[in-house]
Amino acid sequence: MKKFFFLIISLQLLTIISCQSEKKQPKKKINGSNTYHAIVEKWNNQLYKPNALVHKVTRDWDDYNLFWFEFSQKPQPSLGGIRQKATALSKKIEKLQSSLPAAYNNQETRSRIMVMQTKASMLESRVYADYLNADIIATYQTELVEAFDLFQKQLERTSAKSQINFEAGELEMRSQLSKDSLP
Question: What is this structure's pTM?
Answer without folding.
Answer: 0.71
